[in-house]
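Repro:
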Amino acid sequence: APDGSKLHTLILDGSYLGDEGAEDVARALERKHTALRTLRCFYCGVRNRGAQAIARVLPATRLSRLDLTHNEVGAEGVNALADAISEQPSSRHRKKFELNLSDNQIIAPRGESSRAGRRGDPGGAIHALCALVEALDARGGRIGLAVANIGLAASGDASVDLMRKLGASAIEVI
């Protein structure tokens, strides 16, 4: 049953939520605001745990835009988002869905640490991003994905797989 909330857009840009705050937002989405269409968390200090919390409730929402730009989401968070998108019932799909993961340094150079303190595993990050592309492409509808400045240049040849997947998909790179 639809919730009684009239909240359709929640913009939290610049509010340092961190993972704990992202978990609180996820609980609110799950309990009260399943009709929310847009969630923007630009520069909120969200790491993997926060992205995983949002991903856990994603199947129960009607989000058409999720913006996690300029946070510290890594491969684990991307994997959780891919799984959640795959699990979302088609009855919850919007005709259009946009996901922005730009400026997250998802791919740290091998052996180096990213802003989130993770050691670089370009292969694992590329695998997570490929899984995300597959999940988004299988979802159908008009899909947009932004992945600018995520450390792709540091991944070398591994990024070719991701570029091939994106090129073969119906996803618009935004």
